[in-house]
Amino acid sequence: MVGPCFISFFLFLNLLPFFQTLEASHCSINGLPLVRNIAELPQDNYGRGGLSHITVAGSLLHGLKEVEVWLQTFAPGSRTPIHRHSCEEVFVVLKGSGTLYLASSSHKSPGKPEEHFIFSNSTFHIPVNDVHQVWNTNEHEDLQVLVIISRPPIKVFIYEDWSMPHTAAKLKFPYYWDEQCFQESQHDEL
Amino acid sequence: MVGPCFISFFLFLNLLPFFQTLEASHCSINGLPLVRNIAELPQDNYGRGGLSHITVAGSLLHGLKEVEVWLQTFAPGSRTPIHRHSCEEVFVVLKGSGTLYLASSSHKSPGKPEEHFIFSNSTFHIPVNDVHQVWNTNEHEDLQVLVIISRPPIKVFIYEDWSMPHTAAKLKFPYYWDEQCFQESQHDEL
After folding, report:
1. How confident is the model at residue B23 (pLDDT cuts 50, 70, 90)?
2. d(CA B159, CA B179)
């Protein structure tokens, strides 16, 4: 039982090892069960060393139009690019710790970012269009996060460094994990 | 390290017991840190027995406009009302098991719902406007879920039973956990 002003949580989420190849068919929502085991969903690093990405509930994969949920694991030392997007983004840190680098979008270029320590059982959100980077700065442990974005599929502007002007940031769309399904959905329309 | 086609997750999320009274000030985003410890966020049952609700990232609490994230725990036997809403909703089951009851919105009333077993480490989403109920039908364990909704704050239409016509369902807005902050934000505008 949960008392009104007292809480004791114990969350144990164990994704068993599994082996799954990414096949074209994973882009089709046909035949997918409504309730899906996250341990059986396709995961890949999409060519990015140290990353594991699973689209838990997706736009191109599951037909969502307003929200999308990812489960991502960053090996020690690995990180996202420096980037921004015009959708809202919420993080829930499930495991490990690291650093969020965050810079406002109010000047010509991001400039020196603020540094925020992020840790297991913490949450934070990225203000729309603010430039940010999530980095597993913990040398000993994976950083695992649930990521929620609005208005999928995501359109990301990528920066080479924090001094690059906003106008020089490069659009990456479709993004890594949406690329294959985006192209398939384009073919479907022909 | 995470290999490209192999995954082994171990997630341990322990929200330590804490005691926190709900004060008016929790509706203000002023002074809130960007990174927040979920164990220190206000939780309550809002008069609903067996429920624990935490707004992890919210519209009225944190200024989000497009997505909202809740952490909810249902004691054995407890459940949501039978309800629908026009926003998208994604569940990630963190702990326990239960039953999702789901009925289409395409007839005059919901009618007999489909039953779906939900379990730890599963995910599902509720099609927009479909009538549903989440029930902890496991007598021995709490059911803990992360809930993501779009277009907050949520507006819920509640049904007394599955045979009630859609047109008779009653709007509950603001919803339980938004009620206090909604009224405060109204006062702020005067």
Report:
1. very low
2. 20
